[in-house]
Amino acid sequence: MSTLHTVNKSPFEKSSMDSCLAYAKQGSAVLMYEDGIYGAIKGTAIADKIAAASGVSFYVLGPDLKARGVAEDKVVDGIEIVDYPKFVALAAENDKVQAWV
Amino acid sequence: MKFAIQVNEGPYQHQATDSAYQFTKAALEGGHEVMRVFFYHDGVNNGTKLTTPPQDDRNIVNRWSELAKKYDLDMVVCVAAAQRRGIVDEGEMQRNGKDAENIADNFRISGLGQLVEAGIQSERLVVFGD
C-alpha cells in the first residue's frame, strides 16, 4: 500500500513536514505544494532530512514554486518538479492520499 | 480513476480552494471522474453568488460554477457549516424564515453524509485545507 502524502505548509512555520517524514514509508511519495514548497529549497535543515529519507519519492508543484519566486535551480537535487496533471497522476498511482495540514 | 474532493477553506483567504480547483480541473481534463466536491467549514463560502471580486481578479465562485456546468460536477455545501455562515438556498430560506437566498449556480446544500458517501464510493478522497 503506497501513499501520496501532501504537505501544504512551510516546514519553517509548522511541523507537518516533520510529521509526514516520520510517517512516510518506503515506496511512498511526498508532494510539497502551496507554502510546503519552501521545504524543497536547497541548503536547509529539511533538505538534509529529505536526503536521509530513503525509498521515498519527493515532488514539488512547479506553479507554486513560480508563484513564490523560487527558481527551479534552487530545488534540492532529486526532487521532481511537477504540474497539476502530474499531481493528479500521483494521486491515482498511489493507493491513497494523506493531506498533512 | 474516481476522485472525490474536499475543500475546507474559503475563497480569497487561503490557497486551498485555488489548489482544489486546479486539481479538479486537471483531473477532469485528464479523463478522470470527479464524483463530488464537498465544501466543508469555511469552504462553504465558495458557494455564495453574492461574491463580486474586482474585474482583474479571478472569480473563484463563478469558476467553480462554470466547471460544474461543463462537467456536470456534483458540488455539495455542508448544511451545518452553511447555516453558521449564511449560505442559503430556497429550502433553507423557507425552513429558517430568512428573506433571501444566495447559493451560487450548480452548488447544492446537503449533509455530512454526502462526504461519507464520497469517501466510500470514490477511489481517492483528496483533501485541500488548512
Automatic annotation (TrEMBL), chain A:
GO cellular component, one term: sulfurtransferase complex
Signal peptide: none
Any one GO BP annotation for this protein: tRNA wobble position uridine thiolation
InterPro entries: DsrEFH-like, Sulphur_relay_TusB/DsrH
NCBIfam families: sulf_tusB_dsrH
PANTHER family: PROTEIN TUSB
Entry protein name: Sulfurtransferase complex subunit TusB
Organism the protein comes from: Candidatus Thiodiazotropha lotti
Organism lineage string: Bacteria, Pseudomonadati, Pseudomonadota, Gammaproteobacteria, Chromatiales
From TrEMBL, chain B:
Localisation per UniProt entry: Cytoplasm
Highest taxon in the source lineage: Bacteria
SUPFAM superfamilies to which the protein is assigned, alphabetical: DsrEFH-like (SSF75169)
Keyword list, A-Z: Cytoplasm, Transferase
GO cellular-component term (any): sulfurtransferase complex
Keyword Transferase: yes
GO terms for biological process, alphabetical: tRNA wobble position uridine thiolation
UniProt cross-references to InterPro entries, sorted A to Z: DsrEFH-like, Sulphur_relay_DsrE/F-like, Sulphur_relay_TusD/DsrE
Main location: cytoplasm
Entry keyword Coiled coil: no
GO molecular function: sulfur carrier activity; sulfurtransferase activity
Family (UniProt): Belongs to the DsrE/TusD family.
NCBIfam families, sorted: PRK00207.1, sulf_tusD_dsrE
Listed name of the protein: Sulfurtransferase complex subunit TusD
Organism (species): Candidatus Thiodiazotropha lotti
